[in-house]
Amino acid sequence: MVSNITSNVLLIRERIARAAEAAGRSPEEICLVAVTKNRTPEEIREALAAGITDIGENRVQEALAKVEAVGRGCRWHMIGTLQTNKVRAALGFADLIHSLDRPELALAIDREARRAGRTVPVLIQVNVSGEATKHGVAPEGLRALVEQASALETLEVQGLMTIAPLAGPDVVRPVFARLRRLAEEVASWQLPRVEMRWLSMGMSGDFELAIAEGANLVRIGTAIFGPRPG
Ligand SMILES: *Cc1c(COP(=O)(O)O)cnc(C)c1O
């Protein structure tokens, strides 16, 4: 019997491939991050057995417990809001932090990175839609934050991330298009330690639109694991 998780992973890969091809892109350039908040280590193992290579978690404590349970045989992504007092713990598990959104957080990451003697790859989270409930730097504040991060030698800015509103395609697609244009703008500044390699956008309900607009990192939870418990 093929489990739901396994067949869902295959199905999502097919949909990613179709969306990529429709956009004239290669499916191989798109990284699928399986989002495992509120999922058990057993479910994560099943996803890994189905070929998942990247796992996304929102909460540091929960992520640490899961890394402990399933090991480091995959890449771990910190995709949730990060408090400055959790930065040290986050650096302990995350291969990529998607949620740098404010100057104090950049400073806290720099401080902990120096302490650990390493550099830290980050994405800048942008609140493109301007919804009050969403984290992320406003597009107007992006330049100042990128310049600050660029000046911190431990930070490697590797791209941008956004969360689209829960809305129809006519609202969502322009949000993704805007993030892509912002990334082009950032790239044109040619700042040290800033490269726009990743566009992290698209979730279960909207990843095909995101791919149409250039996403190469999609974060998918419920379409792989089913509705979230609780
Ligand atoms: C939960 C979450 C996702 C995945 O959402 P689904 O709709 O379950 O695919 C993606 N990104 C972030 C930041 C999340 O918190």
TrEMBL record:
It comes from the Bacteria. Residues 12-229 form the Alanine racemase N-terminal domain. CDD domains: PLPDE_III_YBL036c_like. The keyword Cytoplasm does not apply. The modification N6-(pyridoxal phosphate)lysine is found at residue 37. Gene3D superfamilies: Alanine racemase. Its cofactor is pyridoxal 5'-phosphate. Keywords: Pyridoxal phosphate. Transmembrane segments: none annotated. It holds the Pfam family Ala_racemase_N. One of its GO terms (molecular function) is pyridoxal phosphate binding. Belongs to the pyridoxal phosphate-binding protein YggS/PROSC family. PANTHER family: PROLINE SYNTHETASE CO-TRANSCRIBED BACTERIAL HOMOLOG PROTEIN (PTHR10146), PYRIDOXAL PHOSPHATE HOMEOSTASIS PROTEIN (PTHR10146:SF14). Pyridoxal 5'-phosphate (PLP)-binding protein, which is involved in PLP homeostasis. HAMAP family: PLP_homeostasis. This is Pyridoxal phosphate homeostasis protein. The lineage of its organism: Bacteria, Bacillati, Bacillota, Clostridia, Eubacteriales.
